Amino acid sequence: MDGKFISFEGPDGAGKTSVMRQITADLKEQLGSDGVVYTREPGGNHIAEQIRDVLFDADNTDMDPRTEALLFAAARRQHLIADILPALQNGKVILCDRYVDSSIAYQGAGRGLGEENIWQINQFAIDGLMPELTIYLDIDSELGLQRIAQNRADEVNRLDEEKLSFHRKVRSAYQKLAQENPQRIVTIDASQPLDQVILQVQQAIHQRFSQLF
Ligand code: TYD
User: Could you tell me the sign of the dihedral formed by the alpha carbons of 39, 56, 148, 174, in that order?
Assistant: First the structure.
């Protein structure tokens, strides 16, 4: 497969959306808009978007944590088959907003289901297909939550309402993943000004794929 699979990860409030918007625009300018695919999890296609609606429905407060983990993995499977694999086969650069690491951090650590258990069910879903590069935007949990409260009070979903202790567990799981996978995951300090964060993300992508940036 000729394509390049890059995922973006980070706790809520790390600025992932703004960073990805700029990086997607830059790469489209460089490669043409057909050469770059931005896609998000859970979602990407009509089936996965329906699973997303179930996951984020504010009425579903009684959802069991394992149900939640399985639904994220199910959405991921469909995303992989319907969107990621075809784009990779067509030689595109795929910028994927969250992937398996999100489940390990949020469901494995945040919900306490165990990182290893979540890795196992996701192995079944992805059949070994991991990104070549993962950009991890690291942010202090309190700062991340402050940013959410300031920027998007209007679009808070079921998962955004978790407490500080949940977000701290998520962050330390991400940091552990980054330590254990230094060849795949590049950590960027997301407390820096946005311009600086974007510059460092561009450099990290260029280091891995010298023809980009
Ligand atoms: P979303 O509103 O899509 O955006 P953002 O990535 O900007 O936060 O929210 C995604 C939420 O879903 C976020 O709180 C993380 C959570 N999530 C999981 O808990 N597990 C997963 O596997 C994925 C992909 C996301």
Answer: negative
